[in-house]
Amino acid sequence: MRAISKSFGTFLAVDNVTLDIRPNEFFTLLGPSGCGKTTLLRMIAGFELPTEGQVLLDDRDISSLLPNQRPVNTVFQNYALFPHLTVAENIGFGLKMLGKPKADIAAVVARMLKLVHLDGRGDNPVTQLSGGQQQRVALARALAPQPKVLLLDEPLSALDLKLRKSMQIELKRLQAETGITFVFVTHDQEEALTMSDRIAVMSQGQVRQVGSAREIYDRPADRFVADFIGETNFLEGTLAGSEGSMASVRLKAGGIIRAGLPEGGAPKADLTVVVRPEHAELAAAGSGTFDGTLGEVIYFGTDTHFHVRLDDGGTFIVRRQNTRSGAAAPETGARVGVRLGEGAAQILKD
Length: 350
What we know:
The chain is of the alpha+beta class. The protein has eight helices and 21 strands. The protein has two domains: 2-8 and 19-223, P-loop containing nucleotide triphosphate hydrolases (Rossmann fold, 3-Layer(aba) Sandwich), CATH 3.40.50; 232-347, CATH 2.40.50.140. The chain has helices at 37-45, 87-97, 102-115, 131-143, 161-178, 189-195, 213-218, 223-228; strands spanning 2-8, 11-17, 26-30, 52-54, 56-57, 60-61, 72-75, 149-153, 181-186, 198-203, 206-211, 233-243, 246-251, 256-260, 270-275, 280-284, 290-299, 303-310, 315-321, 335-340, 345-347. A hairpin with a 2-residue loop joins strand 1 and strand 2. It is an enzyme of class 7 (translocase). GO terms for molecular function: ABC-type putrescine transporter activity; ATP binding; ATP hydrolysis activity.
């Protein structure tokens, strides 16, 4: 995408986006509803034409081509299967429209059925399949013509939680086995972090950060990314000095910490630091980085969240993994300390 914009009347849905998606990559467009991610996907597919800018595939401008003229296929949120056709007929439909010989279609369909673990189900009506199986048929149909790019528009949103997690693994496996570039749209951060080689986080029609799941989670580019991806603690402070890639920050909550500097230079004197809840631990009052009063204690099964009310009026969440021999939790209302791990804190850009 080169300086792509899309307007609907006076509404600017996509605002001057430039993105490079690599061959054989699982790339995710992530953001809240209305951020422009689906509009961007539809411009790659050809269902929408850009108001400005270009879509290039292998250095060829495809911006003005019709959807059926592009080596791109789409898997929709509602699967869009043909209910009057069998599983095999659905998978082979695109190949039939391309005029492929029957023997070639049968061979591809057999290969696709095996790829999506539906061997022996080719003659079944799709209406007899579960939601997860229908999703696999939709994937097989889109993959059968061997597109250069497969677009996936929130294809897992209709599935229940357990099946959705299973299909996340399946999608990643399919992408690795086929070597086709996948461009995936979702508002679900867990889906993005689980499957993606790289993620573009979008807000208000713009790309806020592009990077691997670890880069975006550990080093968010700005407050929006930090707040949207996972749970995050925000601490206000002032710059007390810097050296190399680290800085000393005097926190309003009390204490001085070392924090990573953002890319692009030193921050202003007044700044915001982010700390993930799992990068901190509870300590005895007076022995941590700063103190507070323990508020809510929330048990999640795999871990427990401790909400600490800080002396400056803020709240800090500490996440502790639950083990069979886990330490006893202090009582609500007790004074506690919060200790930050090495490299836990990152300074946000202004």
